[in-house]
Amino acid sequence: MEEVVRVIEDFSPVSVSVGLAQYWVMRALERGSVLVVGQGSDEAYGGYQRFADAYREGGEEAAAWEVRRSIIHSYRVNFEREWRLSLHLGVEILYPLISPGMVYYVGRLPLAARVRGPDDALRKHIVRLAASAMGVPREIAGARKRSMQYSTGAMKALRDVARAHGLKPHQYLYKKYMDLFAGQGGGPGLG
What we know:
By secondary structure, the protein is mainly alpha-helical. It has 2 domains: 1-30 and 153-191, no CATH class; 31-151, Rossmann fold, CATH 3.40.50. Helices cover 61% and strands 3% of the residues. It has 11 helices and 2 strands. It is globular, with a radius of gyration of 18 Å.
């Protein structure tokens, strides 16, 4: 976990736990491997609950705006962390679902291809339709979204380690971060 904090230069429990899950995958690969990931699908294809919430609060236009905003902020929220880990571990990452051509194509489709309304608990309908068309079993293509940090056990691992030190996850990670970067003016972005 310390290595993930050092490489991604972040102490947010969500960022570190997602990074930890990604680290486990990348570490299992040989250096020079190419990893094709589904990152960006929640942003571009309407996977987050906040899109349905925006739909409920401000209608279709608000939900569409929230999807666009999410795509624009993907780099800061997700990709920088992944790129840092991949460079550190010598793994190349490909993002086919959020490539410019795919984002352009999906962006021209009606919002209902992604989010069908304020009560849409499933979302990402176009991805599910494509998966079904490729023969993915219905129970997988239609499964509810599960966040990486929870489905992999990374958040549980973080909580367990923090608890073993008598701390909450955010306290443990902040302490770890400061221990790693204290000699550098308080850490990247804090000095």
